[in-house]
Protein 1
Amino acid sequence: MRIICVNNYDEMSEKAANIVASQIILKPDSVLGLATGSTPIGMYNHIVKAYESGKISFQNVTTFNLDEYLNLDKNNAQSYYFYMRKNLYDKVDISIENINIPDGITDNIQEECIRYEKEIRNKGGIDIQVLGIGRNGHIGFNEPDIKFEALTHMVNLDDQTIKDNSRFFDTVKEVPTKAISMGIKTIMRARKIVLLASGKEKANCIYEAIYGKITPNLPASVLQLHPDVVFVLDKEAASKLDSEEIDKEYL
Ligand code: F6R
């Protein structure tokens, strides 16, 4: 595990974008696992800049998103499909057939989950998985008490997650309560993982994920078992960690 601590949100975003861009430069047909939420927006902006300046191309890149809400149309502005088009896919040269996001309006959820896992396998697995983290320690939408051996599956969102995500909706009642998410096992199969966190409200879950007991109660704690994981944190998210163990890039 490597922990990189930078000054602020923008530095975190740039650092994470550089990690993803390096992956694409080294392997132009990389398979990326991508996250949504507030945290990676700055990273996507920097990735788009790298594309615009000719440093990277998505022509041969394949992407798999972590999750999608159930029963939210793709064109709904709160769907993760819409988010990904707005923040990345409409701004780079990725082919539509190389974009994979779970289908949240499927008639057969179980089949869709199996199909998604198969697609990942057919593409040779995920080279680098980008993650955010929920205040309750969730990764993807793997909420506390998840089974570590879960593959892509339907999840019931935690009350805390519904409350946290209500900031994107007009009322809390509009927030979907279910989603399709890659499972912990799917995430742990990625060859490399980069987790981003910013802000003091993430300090506790980051502390628990890195130093706490490995437990399904704090899903991100499972990352302690991954052989190639890097946490890119701003000072506030890293504020509870012991400073000797961190690469402080702001020193
Ligand atoms: C999003 C996802 C979630 C978010 C997490 C943090 O695809 O899988 O795990 O990363 O809820 O969300 P933000 O970044 O909005 O705090």
Protein 2
Amino acid sequence: MAQLSDDCFAFGGPMRSVDDTAALIASRLTVVDETETVQLANADGRVLARDLVAPLPLPPFTNSAVDGYALRGDDLPGTAEKAFLVSDRIQAGVAPDRPAAPGQAIRIFTGAPLPEGADTVYMQEDVRVDETGRVILPPGLKRGANVRPAGEDVAAGKVVLQAGQRMRPQDVALAAALGMTQLEVRRKVRVAIFSTGNEIVAPGNVRGPAQLFDSNRFMLMAMLARVGCETTDLGILTDDSSLIADVLSEAAPGQDLILASGGVSTGEADCVKAALESVGTLVFWRVAIKPGRPVAMGVIRGTAFIGLPGNPVASFVTFAHIARAAILALAGARQQPPISRPIRAAFSYRKKPGRREYVRVSLRGTQDGTYEAVKFQREGAGLLSSLVQTDGLVELGEEVAQVEPGQTVQFLAYSDLN
Ligand code: AMP
Ligand code: MG
């Protein structure tokens, strides 16, 4: 287990920007050091522990990109069409047993190796075969056409995937093409999660008249699964600091991170704070983010703790922008900040400068073939429907005070935040 020092999040001082927060978290957390070997079929989403160096070139041999006729470049027709005897036939999967003869064409199929000496292939659609079986090749084809040279995709010895890469389907494909059967990856980040609140009850249990079903834990477990964590569900804890302290100290040793939602808003019973302070350390980070402030960062005997706000939208946004960065740092994943895209705002909005705001928006196609962002009508941080009915978040930077319709803003799709 990565051991953090108790003061690793101890920063007083002013509000911190979202970018600084994510960078600071990444610099404070230590990567899980254990690695394991996974079969290629289970490698998607895992974090590569070592650089992958290509043991062979791709393609491994020079081959035809089309079904057609191969010949030596020196024999290419000059200005008029030219007839060739067809001397050989090479199917995919068969290694040619002799070089291409001068003045002759070779019937060849897609993926079949080019015989020595041949360097150009005519597509079968571009040629005629005469009654004697000779193939008539028209002029105009360039030497090297329709050929895939060995190593054109990947040169042998090159680093093709770097340590820290979170494997995507195309990365798995590349490893397979290089003949790998298994990969060394970092073990999954272990995260325990709980919800807090006397008013929170698990779906399936009896809901009292003043209670809500727990939505955050299920949302956050789904988000954790998408970032590749191994999650332990600690359920719902009442606003009882000694209960929370007991659960924290028992869970901490087996986890890299404990994630909680609720109980961290200022002015509340402060039981998460009291619990953390009895078994570890806790700092409230004043992150300049809306919705979402404040986020609590702590350490319990070397294990990181992050307390997210209870309001579901605030939980969602702070997970996506803060907890996710922490998890990727623990996982040893190279951090790829989500890429926002410019889009036209179809709304007006005023905000306080100095903090970053995330506005829930839907995309709407426009007459000129582009999209514009339509803001969800209401703003409450408790409105789950606002997340369900929209496509993503418009990110309004710290410096922005006002948005007018037609202005270009930055859009982050939910699919890029998971
Ligand atoms: P808190 O951060 O504990 O002050 O909670 C802020 C708001 O979020 C309150 O209205 C809570 O009832 C609500 N809330 C807290 N935790 C959850 C949860 N797990 N699921 C749904 N709503 C929650
Ligand atoms: Mg609460």
